[in-house]
Amino acid sequence: MPEITRSRTSARELIDFIDASPSPWHAVASAEARLLATGFTRLDEGERWQLEPSGRYYTVRGGASMIAFTLGSRPMTETGFRMVGAHTDSPGLRLKPKAGISGDGLSRLAVEVYGGPILATFTDRDLSLAGRVVMRTAACQETRLICFDRPLARLPNLAIHMNREVNEQGLKLNKQTELPLTLGQLAEGEDAEASLRRLLADAAQAEASDLLSFELAVYDVQKGCLWGANEEFIADSQLDNLASCHAALTALIATERPAATCVAAFFDHEEVGSESATGAGGSFISDVLNRISFQAALDEEDRRRAMAKSFFISADMAHAYNPNFPAAYEPGHKVRVNGGPVIKTNVNQRYATNAASAALFMGFCEQAGVPYQQYAHRSDLGCGSTIGPMVAAQLGVASVDVGSPMWAMHSARESAGVYDHACMIAALTAAFGS
Q1: Coil/strand/helix, residue 260
Q2: Which of 112, 113, 236, 277 is deepest in the core (most CB within 10 A)?
Q3: Alpha helices, DSSP H only, in 255-352?
Q4: In angstroms, rounded to a whole number, what is the distance separating the alpha carbons of residues 333 and 352?
């Protein structure tokens, strides 16, 4: 498998990116490190922007959303924008503001379900915490990223002797009573909440009394890996959708002097609807595009001309055919792992793809020399959605929904193809260079 062999480098880079990004805030920090190392300049939304011709810039909103862009060499009224959007968040468990639960000699953590994870896959795994804390300082307040890189908590399963029908009926977990995570044992008189605050403050190198608030995701500490007889598959957490973020970021960095202005947008909160200041349903992308247009001295008429010539690619992972469950798939749309990028279509506009935008992405794949596939959901199953339709509606631009095929979407441990990731990078690079 020569294509697989050549693709392993980008697959291992993806694994490193995901393993360094156990929360959306860490994902943005990981992306920022790559951008700074390759000559991009950070812009503050609260400051006046001064953009230089062919400049490479990025800005961050809310710590978990980022938009990076490279200014094109040709006028925007001629080329429009070439845009790729993805999301930094993944389904899972998040800590509640007062998470410590004391009882039965144990310290447990109260969690809330974020998005639509496969809850059963979080049981009996080595779980830990990552995210951001806000500390009181002498000056004011300071936000710090923390990550426990060791197994810290666990969701122990109930033994089969007490749940005899689990293999026939599946594991069902009550979200309120059966999801609290076991953190540790409590000494006589010890309080779980106070103990947790000390633990978080120590990780932030501060005093517990200075801990004001936090946003913490539960993550599996097991590192990603290549697997399969020929190491042709990738296993890791958060492939949905950090694989798309990594592909778009890699493609943007590789596109050094494009004709069109190229934009890579990474949004938080896709898994819960995107309706937030940092989500794709907010103003972030339109604010950034308007500021770029203003810096290029475009009046309202020219800005609209530029948008009419723009193209948006919503990059989110796709459902690969699983032969163990053939009844779950549309018979004519069995997407294959390592078969190339997937173009996703839904006539009810759960995806933004239409015939023209699909054909345009097919052209990018052909230009890059990579195969492509097409996917439609079964008509009798509810279809998920992406940021594609909302960004297309907000900006009024031609859009397509694409993604790399994967198995076990929303599991604590997902799988995808080594070759597919390299193909997606190549296709997005071709799109930025168009």
Answers
A1: coil
A2: 236
A3: 284-295, 300-308
A4: 18
Q: Cβ distance 29 to 42 under 8 Å?
A: no
User: Do residues 180 and 109 touch, judged by C-beta distance below 8 A?
Assistant: yes
Give CA separation, 115 vs 112, 207, 318, in Å: 10, 32, 17
Classify domain 92-220 at the CATH class level.
Answer: mainly beta
Hey, where are the domains in the chain?
2-90+237-432, 92-220
Query: pLDDT tens across 369-399, in order?
Result: 999 999 999 999 989 899 999 999 999 999 9
Assigned token pair, 31: 């992306």
* Contact call for residues 98 and 193 (beta carbons, < 8 A): yes
pTM of the model: 0.97
Strands, E assignment, 320-395 = 342-344, 373-375
Instruction: Please give the single-letter amino acid code of residue 62.
Output: G
Query: Which portions of the chain are predicted below pLDDT 70?
Result: 1-2
Pick the CATH number of 2-90+237-432 from 3.40.1170.60, 3.40.630.10, 3.40.630.30, 1.20.140.10: 3.40.630.10
